[in-house]
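Collaboration report, partner site 2.

Our partner group contributed sequences for two proteins of shared interest, and the home lab folded both. The records are reproduced in the order in which they were received, starting with the first partner submission.
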Amino acid sequence: MAMSAYSAGTASRAAKLSGIAVSCKRPLRPYPESCQFGAFRKRCSDRRLKVSAQSADSLKFRRGSQADASSIFQMTLKESMNPLGLKPERFVIAEDEAGHKPSTLGFGQLQSHGDTGSDSFLELRTLIVDPAHRGKGIGTKLVKELLRMAEGNAVWLTTLENSIPFYAPHGFVEQALDQQIPKSLWFEAAAGTVVARIVAKQRLVVLKREMDSRL
């Protein structure tokens, strides 16, 4: 659920409230002592880039299935996020196919509300990246894949104020609560605002990515 740099503990609590569990920007681990100078440092840097490229190449997306229900539920509970509405078929699963058995790196869902008419809309929800794989751009790639599935339709989400920089590059813009926000999101934002201010010391915001007629 690009974030501002503050303590990891505060970031974790804030992310859990926002419906997104991805890493905030953390400083890179320092180079080992043997990598501090000249050619040694360059070799270490090249080695890092190589590992990153390998991870990107092995990242694959697939649609969730009933076999993913347990892992989705457990990871959502672990992040203290809302465990309701977790239909596996709505999820996109990010997997690492580098090993003998694919491992789940993260997931997110695109939920459709309403059938037709003005009350129908799409909501991006339950974006979670495994803690061991955060800071690698997996959350960003999941958002792009979910928006691709939206096929140009407008997409809404609720999140914490510090997550706005994460979503802004994808076209999401904050919406004032007095605008025409879907009723279910308005009530969610109104109820969650009090909790967000007490626990995370932040505002809960509603974001929208407008319809893209080019898609």
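Second partner submission, folded after the first:
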Amino acid sequence: MMVALLASPTVIAVKAVASMITLSAKGKMQLTYPVFYIMIVLMAISCAFQVKCVLSFLGVFVIARNKKEEHVQIPFIDYGHIPGQKLTGKIQPDSHISCYGTLNNEDDSVKSQN
């Protein structure tokens, strides 16, 4: 994006300088106007910034391309196991029970565990 923003002043400045040099070569002296020198300075500064940006982007690209992939170890958390407690009940009920997927009364769940 930054290079694109710097490109438009560069294009405008280069076009202005080229047109003024062409007119000066045809006989209408344009080199005496201060705008000519302002455009030359603007052209040089914007070109220098563009080159600087392109080189920095190229450096980042080369660094990123040559970087080795790091495999991050994601810790595994077992949500079914609570340290210090024994697992006494089922986490997933049996699918052959008629009440599978429905909410039961506490009395029904106590009866099915016994």
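Feedback sent to the partner group on the second submission included the following. Residues 2-63 form one domain. DSSP finds three helices and no strands in the chain.
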